[in-house]
Predict the structure.
Amino acid sequence: MKNVIDAIITLIKRNCFTLTTSNIRNYPSSQTCCTCGYKNSLTKNLSVRRWICPVCGTVHDRDQNAAINILRKALEMKNSA
Ligand SMILES: [Zn+2]
């Protein structure tokens, strides 16, 4: 999954997005379903690597879901700049 995260970071850098750790410090990227937006507090536990969204049924890989959410956040920031 590191490859997916690296690819997203490269995409962010290539597009000059101003996403820093302070921008996402309080953003629950691992807890938020990237499909429907449901926030699953059970995934605060770092040992939970895969989970199924109880609302939309999407099966999530923790890191891939977080990477998609971070990319979405970067795009939102870019579009609101
Ligand atoms: Zn969902």
Notes: The longest strand covers residues 50-52. The CA atoms of residues 19 and 40 lie 24 Å apart. Helices lie at 2-14, 21-24, 62-80.
